[in-house]
Amino acid sequence: MTHLVQDRRTAGTMLGRLVALLYGIAVYALFFVTFLYVIGFVSGLVAPKTIDTGPQTPAITALVIDLALMSIFAVQHSVMARRGFKRWWTRFAPPPVERSTYVLFATLALMLLLWQWRPIPQVVWRVTSPPLVAGLTGFSFVGWFLVLFSTFLINHFELFGLHQVANNLRGRGMTPPVFKTPLLYKAVRHPIYLGFIIAFWSTPVMTAGHLLFAAVTTAYIFVGIALEERDLVTQFGDDYRRYRERVGMLLPFRKS
């Protein structure tokens, strides 16, 4: 009888781990498709709806809606990333799916922004020279590549929750994080954020709506860096303080 109870518990535990893995994979797939759509949305290429297309509304109405959408994403992204929130959240949710759940809510907030974004089509600048158009467009894709490449330098699959659920399936815990500065991180502390800034601002046609998006997200990046570095100092102490002193925040090879 005892063996039967133990077998059922083992089966139930394994089923729970498998469900967690499938959940993590589904969330990652949703995120990755959304990320690819964002590239088209910002660049104005391929995506059926872009930053400069969609329902036409008065400029003031569009401004209010777009600011509200970006605020929803910023608040969700910042609050759920904080250590205090994670400690509170894992009292109710299993720790192995904490990161996947964060990625899910961030992706849903981003999808809401893409769905409800209102264009403000007034042109701020327009580049007409074909070589410059090609150069700016290409530079924006360099930014997107920098974002993705930088995530793999640290641990792409841990960043988006897959590593946690895979380890959980194997009955392994996560190893404590180790402070490291691979490749690009030796030149700039936040290459992911640098990539986003390049991607958002490198455009041959800058409309008022695109400018709003680029300006607000850039401002949020600086807020996010301040919050993130506060957590990193708490986590890694003097190692991160020394790193911060010798490596620039967003400008490569420039000391703070």
Question: Would you write up a description of this structure?
Answer:
- The chain contains ten helices and two strands, in the order ααααβααααβαα.
- With 256 residues, it is mainly alpha-helical.
- It has one domain.
- α1 runs parallel beside α4, α2 runs antiparallel to α4 and α9 packs across α10.
Could you give a quick summary of the protein structure above?
The protein has 256 residues and is mainly alpha-helical. The chain has helices at 2-43, 59-81, 83-89, 98-116, 130-154, 156-159, 162-169, 191-201, 208-236, 238-246; strands spanning 123-126, 205-207. It contains ten helices and two strands, in the order ααααβααααβαα.
- Give the tally of structural domains: 1
Question: What structural class is derived from the secondary structure elements?
Answer: mainly alpha
The number of E-state strands comes to: 2
Instruction: Please indicate the percent range of residues in DSSP E strands (runs of 2 or more).
Output: under 5%
Biggest β-sheet description: 2 strands, antiparallel
Give the distance, in angstroms, between the N- and C-terminal Cα atoms: 66 Å
The proportion of residues forming helix, as a percent range, comes to: 55-70%
Query: If helices are DSSP runs of H or I spanning 4 or more residues, what is the number of helices?
Result: 10
Instruction: Give me the Rg, rounded.
Output: 21 Å
Strand order of the largest sheet: 1-2
Label the overall shape. globular
Question: What is the average per-residue confidence, as pLDDT, rounded to a whole number?
Answer: 90
Low-confidence stretches: 1-12
Order of helices and strands: HHHHEHHHHEHH
